[in-house]
Request: fold
Amino acid sequence: MSYLSTLLAYIGPGMGGGVIAAIFGIIAAFFLGLWGILYYPIKRALKNKKKKRVLSKNKNRK
Reply:
């Protein structure tokens, strides 16, 4: 008895599209997570640096 005939099954085009969408989703989630981890601390540091610069200018004027 051959079991190969039971292994032949049709996988429609939707399956390929789903796999591609899942792969893109995983890649996008990775890069967006990395962006969130790196961008917001850098943004906060630049904002604090700018605030310190403005405060030091105001002190020097007085």
Notes: Residues 34-62 form one domain. DSSP finds two helices and no strands in the chain. The two ends are 96 Å apart (CA to CA).
